[in-house]
Write a structure and sequence with these properties.
256 residues, alpha/beta, TIM Barrel, eight-stranded mixed β-sheet, 35% helix, 19% strand, globular
């Protein structure tokens, strides 16, 4: 695969549930059609020229060398590092990315820094040998593989993602699920409880609406819908003793 080099890797994120993050790949092959906020920002700042350009990921070849320089300077400031906010650390079908991600997590763990992972790919079972403080997660917005083919055709199947996550759970790892960006019924009719029940083994569930999408706002009851779905998540998690987080902007007043 193509590679690039960078001068820095670890940075403080302003995301509501994040601390530090690293993005050791430019681009993503999963082909999400939500739309992709990471692509929009990359295009805005001139990092890629087009969506087709974005779909061809470039691995940052000097990732580990940068970490060797930055970890000693930042280790006392960092509570955790998330992989990743603008790409996928276990991008489906890219073994080079998987191996770099594993090496980066190991290096951070060796420095006493825990990692949080989120992927639409497959979480490798090797992660079970790493720090048990790490938290491993998947994005799961549906169980319908036809919908996945429409909106994230390059990503791993929903069933395979769940299985990989459950395998880590069985090995005693902390796990989480991001149900975001959740679609409105005009895009797909589905029962959120069915999704929640499939991942009821997870330690934490995050739920959020779809943003930056005209199809969502075209659904007249989208505010009421997201309020209702968020309450379903809250009740489910409280009943099951699962931690949860509802993303800012998901629950809103319906008279605005």
């Amino acid at each position: 695969m193509k590679t690039i080099m960078r001068k820095s890797m670890l940075y403080k994120t302003g995301v509501e549930y994040g601390d530090y993050t690293m993005n050791h790949v430019l681009g993503c092959s999963h082909g999400c059609k939500y739309p992709c906020y990471a692509f929009m920002m990359a295009k805005r700042f001139g990092k890629v020229n087009s969506y087709e350009d974005w779909l061809e990921p470039r691995l940052v070849s000097n990732t580990l060398e940068i970490l060797d320089m930055e970890i000693p300077k930042l280790r006392n400031k960092i509570k955790s590092v998330q992989l990743c906010f603008t790409t996928d650390p276990f991008m489906y079908g890219y073994e080079e990315i998987t191996q770099m991600s594993l090496a980066a997590i190991q290096k951070l763990n060796n420095a006493g820094i825990m990692c949080t992972v989120l992927t639409k790919g497959l979480l490798p079972i090797e992660l079970s040998k790493y720090s048990k403080e790490n938290v491993y997660g998947i994005t799961l917005v549906s169980l319908d593989e036809n919908y996945r083919e429409r909106v994230e055709s390059g990503a791993a199947s929903y069933a395979a993602r769940i299985e990989a996550l459950k395998n880590l759970h069985i090995q005693g790892c902390k796990t989480w699920v991001s149900i975001e960006p959740y679609p409105t019924p005009n895009l797909i009719e589905q029962n959120l409880l069915e999704i929640l029940n499939r991942v009821s083994f997870a330690d934490k569930i995050i739920f959020g609406r779809t943003n930056y999408c005209k199809d969502i706002t075209a659904y007249k009851r989208h505010k009421e819908f997201y309020n209702e779905q968020a309450n379903i998540v809250i009740k489910f998690c409280e009943d099951k003793g699962i931690q949860y987080h509802i993303k800012t902007g998901t629950i809103t007043g319906t008279n605005k």
